[in-house]
Amino acid sequence: MGIQYSDHQPDELLHPFVFTFWKTHNTSGTDSHYTIIPDAGIELIFSIFPEQPQQVTLFGLSTHRLEISIPDQAVFLGVRFKLLAVEYLLRTRLSTNSSLKLSLDFESLELNAHTPLASFADAISALLQQQLRSQIIDPRKRNLLALIDQCKGAISVHELALETGWADRQINRYFKAWFGLPLKAYLEQLVFFSALPQIGQGHFYPQSYYYDQSHFIRQTKKHTGTTPKQLYQQREVRFVQLRGFCDESLHLKK
């Protein structure tokens, strides 16, 4: 009983566009309250509530933590998109902390609380792959975002400019126009979210990207309002995004 979470990885064709497909189900018998941490992804969420119509919402990048309430028996099916999907699959510019409806025909999907995550992922993947058939992707943008993804954000704006042959100012104009924030701010967010697995497994020392322990603690407080140790201690009652990392930690200790 409680909050059940599972995720499903995209196939190779969609890997440059999708971080993961996921499903959350509140079976606790009561409304549950959690803090959502900015995750450097664009979220498409299908909300399924008892005796209510299905809701479909697209969320832009978040720049601050968000307090949410998950109603009892509510089910959320979601896609966490990478940035390349914004222009070439979702076809809409997104400001930070925004939410909107889509022009794509996602609402035609017949989903319910019992829809298996794998079936949801297959149905969404088919729609996305159909979108890709008509797309010609700018190689500079593909290369830029692939480098960011491979480094998990642990690369400077200057290094990206050198690697892609794209000027710093041009990259920042692209990021602000399509995603609503400067590249440096996005890299910082992605680096921190990539550090969550180590926190979820009880490791509180910084990865090599952070200058020192103080830098790591400051960034953790900036994104979550807590220290790494406090974040770990509240993983079961407040920070639902750490659930999968904690499960992995338990598995490793067996």
Overview of this structure, please?
This protein is an alpha+beta fold. 40% of the residues lie in helices and 18% in strands. It folds into 2 domains: 130 residues, no CATH class; 115 residues, Homeodomain-like (Arc Repressor Mutant, subunit A, Orthogonal Bundle). The strands form 2 sheets. A 6-stranded antiparallel β-sheet has the order 1-2-7-4-5-8. The C terminus is likely disordered.
Describe the structure concisely.
The chain has 254 residues and is an alpha+beta fold.
Write down the secondary-structure element order: EEEEEEEHEHHHHHHHHH
Strand order of the largest sheet: 1-2-7-4-5-8
Number of domains: 2
Relative strand content: 15-25%
Give me the oligomer status: single chain
Largest sheet data: 6 strands, antiparallel
Query: Which bin fits the share of residues in helices?
Result: 25-40%
Category from helices, strands and their pairing: alpha+beta
Q: Give the N-to-C terminal Cα separation.
A: 22 Å
Q: Unreliable stretches, pLDDT < 50, 5 or more residues?
A: 247-254
Total helical elements: 10
The overall pLDDT, averaged over residues, is: 88
